[in-house]
Design brief:
Layout: E1 8-11, H1 24-31, H2 39-45, H3 50-67, H4 75-84, E2 88-92, H5 97-106, E3 118-119, H6 131-140, E4 147-151, H7 154-163, E5 166-170, E6 184-186, H8 189-193
Parallel strand pairs: 1-2, 1-4, 2-3, 4-5, 5-6
Length: about 200
Amino acid sequence: MPLHARSHWIFDLDGTLTIPVHDFLAARDALGIPHDCDILGEIERWPEPRAQHARAWLDRWERDLAEHAAAQPDALALVHALVARGARCGILTRNTVPVARLSLARIGLADAFPDAWILGRESAAPKPSPAGILHLLGAWGCPPSDAVMVGDYVHDVRAGRAAGVATVLVNRDGESGWDDEADLVVSDLHALADRI
């Protein structure tokens, strides 16, 4: 099914709909996590109370960044166009749900994503697991062939592929290294809007 015919869209948040500001190397340094390790995966391996302290630090850091979230210049037009044509839109982020809701409110997209369709790391196993996408598909009663996962990182693409949905990689700087894993690669969301 071509993208323009699909009516269920799942978006990553940071870097896809918002301007990326997260310094993940600095976060790893602050938490004592090696630069080549996944932050969430590493924290889950730690014993309590170390893991609890790290999660609390991560929550504060993400909330502070969300307070100042800014929309990608091309995000609002695409999402509003999808909603206007009756598409269902969800968020799948490795942030928490409250942080995602705060970011969406700050960028003017809170009304485009019903609360039940905003999933964070506490809602399902984090990307690259397909669990969050499968959860949304089940809630929507939607087959994978009618859904799209849009993101700017390899975790987004791999989660989408594992769930069997179409995948769109937003490669804004042209240097992702994961282009061959996505069904479609676009330089920005304007380019994606032109295809729907």
